[in-house]
Amino acid sequence: MPHDIHLISILVAGFGLALVFGYLAVRIKAPPLVGYLLAGILIGPTTPGFVGDMGLAFQLSEIGVMLLMFGVGLHFSLSDLMAVKRLAIPGAVLQIIVATLLGVGLGLWWGLSMMGSIVFGLSLSVASTVVLLRSLEARGLLLTSDGKIAVGWLVVEDLVMVLMLVLLPVAADLAGTSDLPNVPAQSSSELWLSFGFTILKLAGFVALMFIVGKRLLPWVLAKVAQTGSRELFTLCIIAVALGTAFFAAKVFEVSFALGAFFAGMMLRESDLSHRAAEESLPLRDAFAVLFFVSVGMLFDPTIILREPWLLLLSVLLIMIGKTVIAAGFVLLSGYSLRTALVVSASLAQIGEFSFILAGMGVAMQLIDQEVYSVILAAAFVSIALNVALMDGALKLVDSRSA
Q1: Within 13 Å and on the Cβ side, how many CA atoms surround 140?
Q2: Mapped to the 3 state alphabet, what secondary structure does the chain carry?
Q3: What is the pLDDT of residues 157-215, one digit of tens each?
Q4: Where are the domains of the chain?
Q5: What distance in Å separates the CA atoms of residue 302 and residue 310, rounded to the nearest whole number?
Q6: Is the N end or the C end of the chain the one with fewer CB atoms within 10 Å?
Q7: What gap in Å lies between CA 376 and CA 300, rounded to an integer?
Q8: Dist CA 260 CA 279 (whole Å)
Q9: Percentage of the chain with pLDDT > 90?
């Protein structure tokens, strides 16, 4: 029997416990994702017994993020995104700025440095791709006009966070607060040059997808479909989704999720897009479960006792502050209360980018492990409570329209 079975162990433990606790959650009328989160706690390092490989868990959950965004792209076209750009672009940017400033204020009040507070604020400002998409899908809202606004908002947030991940080390170095190795000192002109280069890479990726990908990817899918092999067709879908995401991340340094989303958008031009969406659905669901398990593995229950007030205020910022900002902007833009509540409630949590930003902050010694634990705990709590917030928002709308 092979000794290195970490991957098998995390899959067996993750799926098995997620099934058990997901079933129990449904039996007591709770969302299954609460069970998935609890399963993650049980196999995480803060509880006794089996401890899963967290590195592997996060790589597997990243696949889930890619496949989910790929599936969303299969149902969205450029015209769908352009239709909501006047709301999604300024709304997402405004929400990130205001939420980050609130987080900076909270961080400074707690004694963090200015750069540490910026990392803290940014980590609380950006929503989780997986949670938002699963929340909209579960309620049949993903393909509605409200769902499309929320997805457009999410895409803008992803783009902004890609820029932040590039600029944060440089900004910290200019401020003289970064201890991150291999980050050379740079002047303000070099900072702007780095920013411009990042914009060019993003634009280059988008242009490549619309010039080449829009023709190449549907052609490849059609050629594989002509073989009549369902196995090859499914393999082609997965290869296109993950391959494009990996190519986008390595060559253009955009997020895996954004690369997969554009791959799905390009395949939407194919007549086989609906079949591709149906046949990739089981894999998308399975790997999305691992995302919630991985979040549960990060959660340290003792942080509630060590930093209760910072955790409480962080959760309030995420679930109330961000909701009020987004809902207010949507209402002021002339949209209905239902749209405002659906969009704002779906964004009231944090996830993948928050973990990445917080991890970078720790590596740069801008925040310590305690603040990192607070951010992870805030993600856990906001994800667990987001279902109730979303249901409450929809009930409020239905009661007003009755």
Answers
A1: 1
A2: CCCCCHHHHHHHHHHHHHHHHHHHHHHCCCCHHHHHHHHHHHCCCCCCCCCCCHHHHHHHHHHHHHHHHHHHHHHCCHHHHHHCHHHHHHHHHHHHHHHHHHHHHHHHHCCCCHHHHHHHHHHHHCCCHHHHHHHHHHCCCCCCHHHHHHHHHHHHHHHHHHHHHHHHHHHHHHCCCCCCCCCCCCCHHHHHHHHHHHHHHHHHHHHHHHHHHHHHHHHHHHHHHCCCCHHHHHHHHHHHHHHHHHHHHHHCCCCHHHHHHHHHHHHCCCCCHHHHHHHHHHHHHHHHHHHHHHHHHHCCCCHHHHCHHHHHHHHHHHHHHHHHHHHHHHHHCCCCHHHHHHHHHHCCCCCHHHHHHHHHHHHCCCCCHHHHHHHHHHHHHHHHHHHHHHHHHHHHHHHHHC
A3: 888 887 787 677 767 766 665 554 444 555 566 667 777 787 888 889 989 998 998 89
A4: 6-401
A5: 13
A6: N
A7: 8
A8: 16
A9: 28
Query: Which amino acid would we find at residue 62?
Result: E
Of 202, 236, 221, 200, residue with least CA distance to 266: 221
Structure tokens at 98: 């205001």
Query: What are 261's two structure tokens?
Result: 């989303």
Residue listed under structure tokens 């090859």? 232
The upper half-sphere exposure of residue 379, i.e. CA atoms within 13 Å in the direction of its Cβ, equals 36
Does the domain formed by 6-401 have CATH 1.20.1530.20? yes
Q: How many CA within 13 A on the CB side of residue 299? A: 26
**How far apart are alpha carbons 177 and 120 in whole angstroms?**
15
Q: Decide if 113 contacts 354 (C-beta within 8 A).
A: no
Instruction: Compute φ and ψ for 163, nearest 5 degrees.
Output: -65, -40
Residues 58 and 64: their CA atoms lie apart, in Å, by 10
pLDDT at 31 over 50: yes
End-to-end CA distance of the chain: 63
Instruction: Report pLDDT digits (tens) over 93-151.
Output: 999 999 999 999 999 998 988 989 999 999 999 998 888 888 888 888 888 888 889 98
Span 122-138, pLDDT tens digits: 999 999 888 888 888 88
CB of 331 closer than 8 Å to CB of 340: yes
Smallest CA-to-CA distance from 115 within 185, 192, 172, 186 is with: 172
